[in-house]
Amino acid sequence: MLLEVAGLDLRYGATHAVKGVSLTVGEGEIVTVLGANGAGKSSLLKAIAGAEKPTGGTIQFNGRDITGRGASQRVRDGLVLVPEGRQIFVSLSVEENLLMGAYTRSGAEVARDAEEIFDRFPNLEARRHAPASVLSGGEQQMLAVGRALLARPKLMMLDEPSLGLSPIVVDQLFDLIAELNAQGLSILLVEQNTQMALEVASRGYVLELGALRAEGTAEELAADASLVEAYLGNAEDAA
Ligand SMILES: Nc1ncnc2c1ncn2[C@@H]1O[C@H](COP(=O)(O)OP(=O)(O)OP(=O)(O)O)[C@@H](O)[C@H]1O
Fold this sequence. Notes:
Blueprint: E1 3-12, E2 15-25, E3 30-34, H1 41-49, E4 56-61, E5 64-65, H2 71-77, E6 79-82, H3 94-100, H4 108-120, H5 122-125, H6 137-149, E7 155-159, H7 167-182, E8 186-191, H8 194-200, E9 203-208, E10 211-217, H9 218-223, H10 225-232, H11 235-238
Parallel strand pairs: 3-8, 3-9, 6-7, 7-8
Antiparallel strand pairs: 1-2, 1-4, 4-5, 9-10
Helix pairs in contact: 3-6
């Protein structure tokens, strides 16, 4: 397994946001974490990324225990988070935003990788010197993914990437996720768009009030009508 989270616990004062969650992501897999608003999905990803300190449990990545490692060290290890809301700096240029993803790297390879990312996203290339504020929501999401790619990740964690995007752009985003995965990137995807997430993922976990409610293959979860209705809503509700 590339990522092995065991008994992860996270409290914010009196709020018990993540309650003993265990999950795995294998090399080359897309795994999804589903759940309603406030289920603890973002908190889980932040703890795995090192942005929040867990109050219990362990995180193994690529064969080593990273529970005590700092956030930038985890990026160096190949574990990268594309945060909820994209977190683009709108007053900086598209290129400056992109290059921020390489903050743990140096050397000529960074510039080469940036050109590769611009080749992949012509809309970003066309506006590389413009402030990121000129980008649409979908383009900003692509920029956030491009920025994460610039860290050369082994595992990319995406926190609700489809939020606020139009159906056509959501389709493009999920195509991109599938394409990156086909090129070898492992992905942990937090989504409220249950239907699309279960189409692209091989396995999934369902969080409810911080605890794991269900886990299984994407087919098993999609076939569990009571689960989908009670805990996940459908794509239309989430949009
Ligand atoms: N920094 C924080 N301080 C205190 N409580 C927090 C903090 N961040 C999240 N919480 C609480 O922890 C719980 C889980 O929130 P979290 O954002 O992880 O859920 P989520 O499933 O990602 O929801 P959403 O889809 O709304 O982002 C919620 O009750 C939330 O109010």
